[in-house]
Design brief:
The protein is α+β, with helices and mostly antiparallel strands. It contains 3 helices and 7 strands. It has a domain at 41-148: Nucleic acid-binding proteins (OB fold (Dihydrolipoamide Acetyltransferase, E2P)). It has helices at 7-24, 41-46, 150-154, and strands at 55-67, 71-79, 96-102, 115-130, 133-147, 158-162, 166-170. The strands form 2 sheets. The protein has a 5-stranded mixed beta barrel with strand order 1-2-3-5-4. Strands 6-7 form a two-stranded antiparallel ribbon. Strand 4 (115-130) and strand 5 form a beta hairpin. This is Slp family lipoprotein. It holds the Pfam family Slp.
């Protein structure tokens, strides 16, 4: 006996389906405070004076960790963040920035290629080089940081395939 779904019954299930999908994604790790800048590192690099000492939440892939006597600098290739503030490494890169941590950061804990999200305050910029090209790095004084595990990166991502039927699976 075939199952018949009317338009009315589909309208009833749509909000439940949307709620179920949103329940799968983790919540953002940092609260976005009023005045937090919604700007990419590449935009700040073009005109750092325009953004002053604004607050940012940025993330990306760790390129390098350098330790100094009183602080550590982590160079990060930025990527857009998803709704949970996880970097999206399959998207186009959004510039580079240097995250400045107080004290010592163990490079073993955040090796090159690690995905990280930071929350902090813009603190000027610095001219540098990327290979043979001149580059302006926005500097961020880090208030909070999170290094993502592989399990956290895949949490809440669903596989949906639409075709002759509808199937859903969770990774």
């Amino acid at each position: 006996m075939p199952i018949r779904l009317s338009l009315r019954s589909l309208r009833w299930f749509a909000p439940l389906f949307a709620l179920a999908l949103s329940a799968c994604a983790p919540a953002p790790i940092y609260k976005v405070a009023p005045g937090t800048l919604a700007v990419l590192p590449a935009q700040v690099a073009q005109s750092p004076e325009q953004y002053g000492n604004g607050q940012v939440i940025w993330g990306g892939s760790v390129i390098n960790v350098r330790n100094f006597p009183d602080h550590s600098e982590v160079e990060i290739l930025a990527y857009p963040l998803d709704s949970s503030q996880r970097p999206q490494p399959n998207a186009h890169a959004a510039g580079r920035f240097i995250a400045i941590f107080p004290g010592y950061v163990e490079s073993f804990n955040i090796p090159g290629g690690s995905l990280i999200t930071i929350s902090g305050q813009l603190n000027g910029s610095r001219a540098g080089m990327v290979d043979q090209a001149a580059y302006v790095y926005p500097l961020v004084s880090v208030a909070q940081s999170h290094v993502w595990t592989a399990a956290e990166m895949s949490q809440g991502h669903t596989d949906f395939h639409f075709g002759v039927g509808v199937a859903a699976g969770f990774r």
